[in-house]
Amino acid sequence: MDRMIHTALNSLHNLHDIRQTTAQNLSSVDIPGFRRDLPNDGGAAFVEAMDAASARVMNLETGKAGFSNKQGALRQTGIQTDVAIVSEGYFFVKPDNGAIALARRGDFNLSAEGFLQNGAGDLVLDDGLQPIELPAFTEFQISNVGEMSISQFDGPEGQFQSYGFLGLTSATSEALTKGDDGQIRRFDGTVPDPEQGPLLAQGMLEQSNVDPVAELVQSIEAQRQFEIGVKFIKMAEDIDRGGAELMRLPQN
């Protein structure tokens, strides 16, 4: 009886994590460059009692959650500060009160202080992993390898000046994960070295790689399994109550 309850409760716990991941993905459908979260890897463990393994087995999560590297669809915006990575790779960013991280988000703009940032407010870094500070400009150009050139607001029209390179990395052989802050880094919290391998396209944005239809179907399926787990617990309660009734002594 208790094995049935343990199995159902363990299933409900795992379904809670799956539904949490699905909800996170659905809420991030419109975030440029968002990488779909994946459930944690799993393992199995037997419950031991009095130094002996019992028939109770639990599904366990192992390691940190991964994410999908599938390329998101590219959308042309025509905005000169929108930049998409059209190959494997990442931008380097510096979140507020956080360590340097990797991102695919390319909806750039200038902060009030003149620093290049993305739509989440993370500072975009150059190939030396330093924040990029730019003067006011009328035109912004970026090459397919990340070289930035601007026509200054108070400068000669049509004259462009180079302001270095965006920090990029291909990270093709790296094991990456999302931390508690949702940022992408190595498992030890570090990031790869910059290298100008990724190719860029100006005036375009990479959309999230989340398939909302697939996520909704998975959410509905998880809800149905959750309801089955609850019925399992109710069934165990009814069986236990019935057994107690059978064992009750007759009353005179």
From TrEMBL:
Q: Which UniProt keywords are listed?
A: Bacterial flagellum, Cell projection, Cilium, Flagellum
Q: Where in the cell is it found?
A: Bacterial flagellum basal body
Q: Where is the Flagellar hook protein FlgE/F/G-like D1 domain?
A: 84-149
| Gene Ontology process terms (BP) | bacterial-type flagellum-dependent swarming motility
- Name one cellular component (GO) term: bacterial-type flagellum basal body
Pfam family of this protein, just one? LlgE_F_G_D1
InterPro entries assigned to the protein according to its UniProt record, in alphabetical order? Flg_bb/hook_C_dom, FlgE/F/G-like, LlgE_F_G-like_D1
- Where do the Flagellar basal-body/hook protein C-terminal domain residues begin and end? 201-241
This chain belongs to the protein called Flagellar basal-body rod protein FlgF
Species of provenance = Lentibacter algarum
The organism that produces this protein has a lineage beginning with: Bacteria, Pseudomonadati, Pseudomonadota, Alphaproteobacteria, Rhodobacterales
